[in-house]
């Protein structure tokens, strides 16, 4: 599942991941958090800057909730010090924008293994 409030980024990520053979669900805001808790995805790719809540907050919530704590969460952002942000919210990994498609696919594959 991908959550990003930028439509262009969301479409790019959806296209790339579908071409790589992944089934992709998308969301644009924090209301999609409820869907995650009802039907947990295999992996969550979440932008750190969303309207209403940060990816950091979403990640921390998921990682500290027993039903969702095992979902691999990757933060994606142009946020300075993204590594520190990812570590503080217990994210499994992070992808700094701008990113290379090969790096994105490698990190997703690695975190799904």
Structural account:
It comes from Mucilaginibacter calamicampi. This is PleD family two-component system response regulator. Residues 1-112 form the Response regulatory domain. The modification 4-aspartylphosphate is found at residue 47. Keywords: Phosphoprotein. The chain is an alpha/beta fold and 113 residues long. The chain has a domain at 1-25. Helix content is 42%, strand content 15%. The chain is built from five helices and five strands, in the order E-H-E-H-E-H-E-H-E-H. It has a five-stranded parallel β-sheet with strand order 2-1-3-4-5, with helices on both faces. Strand 1 (2-3), helix 1 and strand 2 form a beta-alpha-beta unit. The longest helix has 13 residues, at 7-19. It is globular and about 30 Å long. The mean pLDDT is 90.
């Amino acid at each position: 599942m991908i959550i990003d409030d930028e439509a262009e980024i969301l479409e790019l990520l959806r296209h790339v991941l579908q071409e790589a053979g992944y089934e992709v669900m998308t969301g644009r805001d924090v209301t999609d958090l409820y869907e995650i808790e009802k039907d947990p995805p295999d992996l969550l790719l979440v932008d750190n800057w969303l309207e209403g809540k940060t990816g950091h907050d979403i990640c921390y919530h998921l990682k500290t909730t027993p039903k969702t704590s095992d979902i691999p969460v990757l933060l994606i952002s142009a946020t300075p010090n993204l590594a520190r942000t990812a570590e503080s919210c217990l994210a499994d990994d992070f992808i700094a924008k701008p990113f290379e498609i090969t790096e994105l696919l490698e990190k997703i594959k690695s975190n799904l293994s």
